[in-house]
Design brief:
alpha/beta; globular; binds 5-O-phosphono-beta-D-ribofuranosylamine; 7-stranded mixed sheet
Length: 187
Amino acid sequence: MVKKIKACVFISGNGSNLLSLIKSSRSYKFPIKIELVISNKKNANGLKFAKKYSIPYKVFSSNNIKIFERKSLFILKKKKITFICLAGFMKILSQNFIKNFKYKVINIHPSLLPKYKGINTHKRVLDNNEKCSGCTVHFVTQKLDSGKIILQKKVLVKKNETEKSLRERVLKEEHKLYPEAIRLIFK
Ligand code: GRF
């Protein structure tokens, strides 16, 4: 049996990337085991996937990032978690928090970084008439969407593309890219 890295996924919303990571991590060959899900939103849809797959979860809904980090850190240390995946998590973590994790903190972003950091990426891509967009998995630093890139996937922008259609097509690629990036990190 492969000894798996103990991981936690942070979410704020829909949780489709969480679901793809849960599915991948059920394979015995996948390098991480998701031992905890943390949400900063009590109504996050993604929590239903934690429940469905019997993964322990916590909601820390304080808007104060220091309080959120303190509460998260307490349980993460208790569970000996050494790796964090952000999946649609809408807060910026401090360097003090990030440095606690031996195998670091990673994130998925729906653009070809360093282009289109931040929110509303698909709208900005279309407004600028870009020919392609995509998604990126990267290490997290205190600077928004700026850490070292692990893996990227390009998605061509189609004629008559809408924000919705681009979001859906990029998200489909995200679901494959995130597990692939994790396999790559621990290879
Ligand atoms: C994804 O597009 C992700 O790249 C971005 O937020 C979205 C989250 O989607 N950071 P989901 O919650 O995983 O469905």
